[in-house]
Amino acid sequence: MSTLMPELKYPQLPAWLTESPTDGATITFDRGFIIIAFCLYFVGLVMVASSSMPVAERLFDNPFHFVVRHAIYIVISLVIAGIALQVPMQMWHKLSGWFLLLAIISLVVVLIIGRSVNGSTRWIVLGPINIQAAEPAKLFFFCYLSGYLVRRREEVSQKLKGWIKPLGVLFLLAVLLLFQPDLGTVIVMFATTVGLLFLAGAKLWQFVSVLVAGISAFVVLIVISPYRLRRITGFMDPWQDPFGSGYQLTQSLMAYGRGEIFGQGLGNSIQKLEYLPEAHTDFVMAVIGEEFGFFGVLCVLALCLTLVIKSLLLGKRALEKEKYFEGFFAYAIGIWLSFQAAVNVGASAGLFPTKGLTMPLISYGGSSMIIMTLAIVVLIRIDHELRLQSIQATTKGGVKNV
Q1: Burial (Cβ within 10 Å: 0-12, 13-18, ≥19) of residue 343
Q2: Could you tell me the pLDDT band of residue 25, with boundaries at 50, 70 and 90?
Q3: What secondary structure does DSSP assign to 3-19, as a single string?
Q4: At a CB cut-off of 8 Å and minimum separation 6, what does 383 contact?
Q5: How far, in Å, CA of 199 to CA of 204, rounded?
């Protein structure tokens, strides 16, 4: 396997964020993942409270409506995390095919009985709970893809059909997502899939061919869809129609501009006063930029970057120990988190067209919060099992030497 994997080099992280499995027999989990997650939870809770109060006051006559619900989502996420943490990675691997089937069923169900908001049918309503079907679909597909790469890694590196099969599954999911429509999720899943297949040892010409084909397909989807084309033209020059197609982006850019280096201070955003739509969801980073400036945005991005690097390092370590499913799954989560965070920040800063993707663990939204928490739980569990394996190997070696 080592001959198939490209040599990856990562920036050095602080010692407290790169605890190795041999740091001590009593340390059986990586505290760095937990610290970063709680930092992002805290930032998200504070910023959802700051950015959502005006719209919550108008819609529900309760300025704390969204922040209370966000806090409840965090508590639910932690409860689910405590349960999921007990599930061994072997079970994730064993059930990966069933997870994919569940993802497909949920994407079909949402098209039949889903609730439409702003022209998109993305939510399954179960009483007081709204489930965004695309969020678990991402995690379940990456779980399936990791299992597939374990079974077919020789085909992926040597034969074209090794690529065709997972791309066929991705195509099916993409079709269901485009009926919602949700092009942003399709882009994230495509980028993660291509990146993971490349890391699994696919040849460069295969990687380039699929990448070109995928980009061409996205261009066609944009050209044939009038509303997507309006988004692109609005993104290219938002000031041409600042009160129409470019309204949201111009308001977001003004928020970043007002923030300058250190921001206007917590609670002092003007754009959140219902000038900037979706200020507590997709464009929460613009409010962070306005209230905490470039420094605040940089701190959030540093937390996300650290989480991504730790995920990639964990994947590399798992592959070195021949834990292939765990390694590919950690790689997939790292690529997914990095790409989604980059698209979210890039969309609010005018680098990418608006795609409706949340900022991981910060934006308001229960489905995204729970699934991102589950992704981090998977990373913690992978690290835990690697540590236990090293401790057991050390103990056996010590007994054998005696």
Answers
A1: buried
A2: very low
A3: TTSPP-------GGG--
A4: 21, 29, 30, 33, 314
A5: 11
